[in-house]
Structures are given as structure tokens and as C-alpha cells.
Amino acid sequence: MGRMCDIAVIGAGVIGSAIAYRLARSGRDVVLIGDGKDGASAAAAGMLCPSFELSHDAGKPVLADLLARSNEAWSAFAEELSDDPYAEFGYHRRGAYGIGYHARPPGAVPVDEGALPDFSAPPSFFVPGEGAVEPLRLIAVLRDRLTISGGSIVHGHAAVDGRTIMVGTETIKAGSIVLATGTAPDLGAEGMMGVEGEAFLVRLPDPSIVPTVVRSPTAYVVPRADGTLYIGATENWPGAIPQAREELWRDALRLIPHLGSADVLGHFKGLRPFISRDGPLVARDGERPHLIRAQGHYRNGVLFAPLTAQTVEHLLRG
């Protein structure tokens, strides 16, 4: 005989972990199921920069509203998770610089041209209040808070049959199931596609060269608490001519000439789960009302995490 729970959350990346944590914190009996791979979350930059995302997907009022609401939710979410969110998972709101943009996004302010002296071009503007978080450290904190709140974690591939989930030899029967499975082919929503992205992790002799998030039309740089820099990212759509990571590196090197002396510590590769330019799918499945889909967060899984978790909680209450 297997275990029973109120809610099973399948997918243990940032989105699934945030949902499971929030539900457990509200007193629900929650099981988080992950396959041991962090997928897109492991390759994510962790930026909390809605203004830049709107410049990437301009003219999308639904997306703009979602980005603004989730960005506003992040401060309370971070404080709820930790007394020192920067130390625990790199959360900061130091703002973000834009370089090489012709238009200024909402909320951006003019900036001294000498603000980034080690970059090849002066900043076009500065967006106060934006920032970043470190995704894998955030996931670790979410899972820790989940278990403290009474939830549990099961590792393995999940096979779903109605309200029954098989994970290896274990059977879990759930009142409701939440799918936060990214691009997993067997549990994906209709129309889901994976948009491949690649990025680098480097260390400069002087990490203070990059004081906060810096974005250009061709590359972005995100400093992390340990002094490393995340440099991203390619975006390769199915069927399109792929952008090579070497091209990304050349773009980043043009932006920050000092990268020529950097140690390259790692290379990331992942699939961004895409459904719609208007934002993710967070809703009950039309044919199976016990099933909630939280999928298709594309470039903004980290940014959308608190809002998606809130939305799923409200759906389950309804």
C-alpha cells in the first residue's frame, strides 16, 4: 500500500519547489516529486528584471501585468524564506544597467556615463529596484523550508495514472496533482516547446568590475555572491538557425574586455519551457480538474515563482 497526500507536486525546479513550499506552509500535506535533475532551473540566470523582459516581448499587456505583480511579490517572498536572503540565496535589489539600448524601459533613469568604467560602452540607463537571485541556492532553501513545514520530497521519475503516481516502486495517491514539469515530454501541456539556451560561469580577478546586473541586446552579466559571474544566454528556437555559444562569448567579450583574463568555470545548457508570449499556463486541466498545470514559464521561472505559487494555492482553495 502506498502513501496518500493532499497534493503531489511533480517537478522540483524553482517553480515546483516554490509551489510545494507555499502549500506545505499553509498546512497542506504535500509531496514534492523530482527526477534529480534541476533542468532549466540549473541553467537559469535568476534575474529579477521585468523591465528588460518587457523589452524582449514588447506589446504584451497580459505579460506586463504578470511580471509586475510577481516582481512586487518577491520582496515579501524573500523575507518569508530567510532573515538574510542575500547570504542564503543571493537575493538582491541593487538595480540593473542597460548598455546599447535605444529606448529606455519603464522605470529606468538616466545614469552617469562613467558608472561602469571597465565596460566597452557607457550605460544607457539604470533601472532601480531590479536585481537577481541564485536559482540552485534558492531551490535548496525552498526544499529545506518545505520539509520544515511538514512536506516531503520523493526522488525519481513520475508516471501519472489518474490521481495515482508511480515513482519507481513507490505509489502515491494524491487528492490533487500539480504539474511543474518544464519541458518533460510525457507530462507537458499541449503546444509546449523547449527553447534551448546556453550560458557561462566565469571568475574575474576583480569581480567588482560588475557591481550588479548588466544587460545589452546581445548578452547579459549577473554577478553572484561568491564573486562569480553568470554570462548569458543564447536562445535557439526549434527550426531556427542556432546561435553558437562562441558567438555569445564574443558578444560578452566586446561588452567587458576584461573577460579575456577570466577563468571559465562552467558552461550551462538547458531548455526554456515555452507555451505563450502572454506568459505561463497556470490553470486547472480542462479534462482532469484534479490536475493543475504550472508550466511554460519560458525565460522567467525564477521571477514568476512567488506569483505562480500564490495562484496555485488559490486554485486549490477554489
UniProtKB/TrEMBL annotation:
One of its GO terms (molecular function) is oxidoreductase activity. Residues 6-312 form the FAD dependent oxidoreductase domain. This is FAD-dependent oxidoreductase. GO terms for cellular component: cytoplasm. It comes from the Bacteria. The keyword Cell division does not apply. Pfam families: DAO (PF01266). Keywords: Oxidoreductase. Transmembrane segments: none annotated.
